[in-house]
Amino acid sequence: MRQQPKPAVVLLSGGLDSTTTLAIAKHEGFQLHALTFQYGQRHAIEIDAARRVAQAMGVKRHVLVDIDLRVFGGSALTDDLTVPKHRAAEEIDHAIPSTYVPARNTVFLSYALAFAEVTQSDDIFIGVNALDYSGYPDCRPEYIRAFEAMANLATKAAVEGHQRLRIHTPLIQLTKAQIIQRGIALGVDYSLTHSCYDPSPDGTSCGQCDSCLLRLKGFSEAGVADPIPYRLPPSTPALRA
What's the CATH code of the domain at 183? Predict the structure, then answer.
């Protein structure tokens, strides 16, 4: 009898990193359960991207969770704050930017923990990265290790010995260029993805925010053209580093 693939929960934003992470989980033979959040971010364009990606990759179940982190504010993605733009690579790496959403990955992983218990998944995938990223504290390896330890104390399934949760971070030590190369090797269609923090109403990326600059830097270093359109010719400070 053919053995059923093991289920896994994958956090899917519709961006480059989470899409590559989903492709890696699929390549490793997991049955995919994707989790996407509409959390009060500046736009819903990335939600549409997540839907496209999930459909293209044959996700078994794609759950969209509606929460509202705008009630707390404190981020340029959920509050009336300016999205940083035109920043050089050394500026992006220097300090935690205003696009940091307080406790976002902790909130997301907590939902993933519940979804994993219900789907009898021992595995949660998240596309955090500790190299080419904007300094977010909840993308660090020590944070992931701490959450995994807590998760295995938090569920009925784990306490009763039916579940041993592992949080997979396959991108955590990769550069953006390496992430893109890995995704291309797995057949990822990056034209389906969205990364921009401040896109036009039609979804066109600005080419100037930190996320666009890091994405463009990655494609440039990977020697591959970025397949998505940009509103303005991308600024180049981050590409020099």
Answer: 3.40.50.620
